[in-house]
Amino acid sequence: MMLLENNENGYNCFVYVEKWRDFMKVLIGGYTKKTSKGIYEFNFIGADEYAHLENSKNIIEVGGPTYFQKDDNLVFAVTNAGDKGGVSVFKAGANGYEKVDEYLTPGSSPAYIGINRNKHLLYTANYHTGVINVFSYSEDGKLALLASDTHTAKSIGPRPEQADGPHPHFFDETPAGNLVCCDLGNDTVDFYKFDGKKLTLAASYKNEAGFGDRHIAFSKDGNYFYVAGELSSKVNLVKFDENTWKFEDIATYSTIPSDWDQHNGVAAIRISKDGRFLYVSNRGNDSIVVFAINDDHTLKLVQRISTFGEFPRDFNWDKSEKYVVAANQNSDNATLYLRNSDDGTLSPIQKDIQVPEGTRVEFEE
């Protein structure tokens, strides 16, 4: 649209401004150990370099929503309820979000929730208890536990973070509709068949000792996967076949500079929809590293950019993948970037967005 403005000399001039996108929201949840009350909502205002987040408000009050998923008017949030942990379901209504169901068990809460919105299925991975679960949910958000499995110490790694046993950190679907779990304690990627009632281990891929498998992303063609190693600060590229369960270790890439000698832990990993770029967050180096994906699926470093805060556990983008938000857990802030779809690079357009203890980012459109 065209706006008529006065310039510094008092003359009228026309300035072109793209219509602001005031229909989009950004949700950020995280720990509630300090000041956070749960999940916060921001209005996404503007476009291109004028885009920004504003009007933060706490829309769901819940303990420790370090990960959550959204399906229309339902939010499924990791919940820490004192000596119990699990999943709580909130439904949006005229008066805001109300809790409609929860599934809690003694002990710690899960670290991850995956979702299949078409099948109405949820997948949870519990880092501390070693348990992975499959739930179904109704249109009203009612949960039903369908299947469960408990990881054992079959190949515990040498690092201190692995000494106390298995640590499932991710549980979700593969390109062919099987299920996959990353186990940080065992340094494994475990693949499961699910028949609607029972989980059956189909195959396991073993990373190098101390790799610390955290999250995984699959190539656009479904024939390769990239494992994010939290403890090693590496990404491992693997070719695989979901019919024969054969694996081929192709290459491993560092996410941190060669001269980095301080603590770092890799966290989130994502691949753009066009399959051309891979993004990983570094907690310690406090950056997002951008790799170009070559035709043979190998990686080429494109950019390593600051998150302008401390400990970026998660980042995410809108449906167009034009805007990226990274949440910095320890510095209680977030950063908004513009993403260049041609070369994959990120450009910060808003820094120091105040949000307490953020660990999970989700766009709502």
Automatic annotation (TrEMBL):
<dbReference type="InterPro" id="IPR050282">
    <property type="entry name" value="Cycloisomerase_2"/>
</dbReference>
<dbReference type="GO" id="GO:0005829">
    <property type="term" value="C:cytosol"/>
</dbReference>
<dbReference type="GO" id="GO:0017057">
    <property type="term" value="F:6-phosphogluconolactonase activity"/>
</dbReference>
<dbReference type="InterPro" id="IPR019405">
    <property type="entry name" value="Lactonase_7-beta_prop"/>
</dbReference>
<keyword id="KW-0413">Isomerase</keyword>
<dbReference type="InterPro" id="IPR015943">
    <property type="entry name" value="WD40/YVTN_repeat-like_dom_sf"/>
</dbReference>
<comment type="similarity">
    <text>Belongs to the cycloisomerase 2 family.</text>
</comment>
<dbReference type="Pfam" id="PF10282">
    <property type="entry name" value="Lactonase"/>
</dbReference>
<protein>
    <submittedName>
        <fullName>Isomerase</fullName>
    </submittedName>
</protein>
<dbReference type="GO" id="GO:0016853">
    <property type="term" value="F:isomerase activity"/>
</dbReference>
<dbReference type="InterPro" id="IPR011048">
    <property type="entry name" value="Haem_d1_sf"/>
</dbReference>
